[in-house]
Design goal:
single chain, Ribosomal Protein L22, Chain A, three-stranded antiparallel sheet, globular, binds coenzyme A
Length: 254
């Protein structure tokens, strides 16, 4: 699917997922994105658990599904390692706070980040200067996904999706979904923002775009579809700038 995409933010920026170099450092004016395939994680569960704090460990115990435990433990541990590297502190010393809607952030530190999980993938974004949101979703035929779209999407998004050829509906659904989720996550408001209160483009083959801004969030936001190597996933980045720059890193086993 991604091979068919025309030039968009990601391809124009020549983004492909490179192995993360040992000497990686965050850069100003550029988001670093990290993809983790949980079937080949960069860190094993016991080591990852040792990086978490007590609150996080209690959270792990409360997750009912082993899959949710694994994605949280690996994702959070890698996030701690990356933020520790940026802040030049031990990963265990990173202290998270949470916005009223649940977005983790660093108190007293301007480093921005966001996390998304789906099935066997975790996507992380880190920026020194720009609020951001990321979303990744596995492309699967969901029960009644058109009804979901009708219920949650803006009317204009639903109409634009339905106007596409039927074989593109599933891809359009996931394109709209990831674009909207990346936006509501970037703003930190989550779905409380009202998913039908703003509009993204529906066509999965054209670059992501915020077509109608949210009336309460007038700032400049940019969406970028991300070229996930595995065609079974769709992902999007949202950043609070009109000239998004980013790099993509693949994190594999050590
Ligand atoms: C929580 C929410 C922000 C994202 O949920 P999601 O898409 O299911 O989950 P993701 O894996 O993409 O993101 C979860 C991560 O986002 C972060 N997060 C939590 N609340 C957040 C918020 N308000 N803003 C930004 N990020 C948030 C956390 O880091 C969390 O990971 P962690 O628990 O490992 O720390 C929210 O938008 C939500 O509840 N979505 C439900 C999905 C839905 O119904 N979509 C309808 C489209 S049809």
């Amino acid at each position: 699917m991604m091979d068919d995409l025309p030039m968009n933010h990601s391809l124009a920026n020549e983004h492909h997922w490179s192995p993360l170099p040992d000497d990686w450092q965050a850069d100003v004016d550029r988001v670093d994105l990290f993809a983790i395939d949980l079937t080949q994680p960069p860190i094993l569960i016991p080591e990852a658990m040792s990086l978490l704090d007590e609150v996080e460990r209690q959270r792990v115990e409360r997750f009912k599904s082993p899959k949710r435990q694994r994605e949280f433990v690996i994702g959070r541990a890698v996030l701690r390692m990356l933020l520790g590297s940026v802040l030049r502190i031990d990963p265990q010393a990173v202290r998270f706070e949470h916005s009223p809607q649940g977005k983790p952030f660093l108190l007293n530190d301007p480093v921005h980040f966001n996390v998304s999980h789906s099935h066997d993938m975790v996507l992380l974004g880190v920026s020194l200067d720009t609020p951001l949101g990321v979303d990744i979703e596995r492309v699967v035929e969901r029960d009644q996904y058109l009804k979901l779209a009708k219920r949650f999407f803006a009317p204009g998004e639903y109409d634009a999706m339905i106007a596409l050829p039927a074989e593109q509906h599933l891809a359009a659904f996931h394109a709209i979904w990831t674009r909207k989720e990346a936006f509501v996550k970037a703003t930190a408001k989550g779905i409380a923002l009202g998913l039908d209160q703003f509009q993204v483009n529906a066509d999965p083959l054209t670059p992501a775009k915020l077509e109608i801004p949210h009336p309460q969030i007038p700032d400049k936001w940019s969406l970028c579809d991300l070229p996930i190597a595995n065609d079974n996933y769709r992902a999007c980045l949202c950043v609070a700038t009109d000239s998004p720059q980013y790099r993509c890193w693949q994190m594999g086993p050590n």
